[in-house]
Predict the structure of Adenosylmethionine-8-amino-7-oxononanoate aminotransferase.
Amino acid sequence: MLEPYRGYPDHSHMNHQLDANAALAQRDLRHIWHPCTQMHDHEYVPMVPIVRGEGAWLIDADGRRYLDGISSWWTNLFGHANPRIAAALAEQARTLEHVIFAGFTHPVAIELAERLVDITPQGLEKVFFADNGSAAIEVALKMSFHYWLNQGHGEKTRFIALTGSYHGETLGALSVSDVALYRKTYAPLLLTPILAPSPDIYEGEPGESPEQIAARRLETMRELLERHAQEACAVIVEPLVQCAGGMRMYHPSYLSGLRALCDQYHVHLIADEIAVGFGRTGTMFACEQAAIAPDFMCLSKGLTGGTLPLSAVLTTQRMYDAFYAEYSAGKAFLHSHSYTGNPLACRAALETLNIFRDEPVLEHNRTLTAHLAKRLAPLREHPNVADVRQHGMIAAVELVADKATRRAFPSEERRGLRVYLHGLEHGALLRPLGNIIYFMPPYVVSEDEIDHLVDVASAGIARAVVA
């Protein structure tokens, strides 16, 4: 059984006014339906009202502080209420807040597109803006299909995805995802992807190196492409880390091999860098570690430093040219969002890129990465830890019931939730993926703050694995 949350004082025996947190939580639960949540849980899991952010910290209505170990769903790069981004947003709000992006444009979107083309892999020359990560995936899927249709290959209607993949929760994005928790309920509404085995290192054979796992999985991908290339539009992957699928990690050689296979069999390669882009894996973009350029690169989350929703799909001139024709040809890509190219979001993104330009972010992250690895290393010896893995500023600890066999804890025991509740009690936001405790802090986190995160997580793990 879960222990009750002990971070808030019990006011049930008192008649005076509720504390500020409890009062806001009560108002929230009267009307708001939260994402990715069984709302019944909030009968015993606290709703935490955050009123202020400060660097890597979140502050609730009663002044309690929580170190944001997951960058508020992987979005925040340079700290909450970052003064540079806030100042840029304030200036933009006084100038232009929004304008229709069909037939109109504005300088901020133009500069952002230019800057994105400059920093992404060579050959990505066109930028299509959307509102969020799932929307970017929808754009890439539709654009890939529509490209082949415009080229006279309407038989290409399917997509190849990796087992354990997650690309979002709109219907198209969910169609190329393979996490049963999200997909199962809506399966009758979804396209059926062709699934290729993930090159996930954790699932490798005993004694296999990461490179050997990648090579073996590439052979399986080759066999799939031989059978299905004529009906497949694209292969979609999260480069290096399958994030919501359990922080599964794989070797960069899989990406370089996959690029070659996609070229050989004439299917597109879609790189979902929504979570792994902007320095998360150690390079600006994960694809750089394999020295490849995809046909589509989807960006969001850290694109605005975690301040406003915005996404971008970068693609090639060849892709663009397949849609460029007289209107009467019916080849236009008629996809839109009301807030496409929103000036406020674009300005936040520009200032985020300016911080990367002006400060040694990636170099500093390498120091933080090494410190995080050092602090997590002792957990490898824990009797209920099957794996500790890391790619740059993303690290994960896999909890199991039995280390020797890697037997998982029954999901209904919700051991990860115990770690989450322990974290709240001790000033840390840790939101596990099932029984996988992961770390993805903002880049402004200090080594002392990393120590706090790991210490809290380690104590939470010790508490969670007790029968």
In short: The longest helix spans residues 210-228.
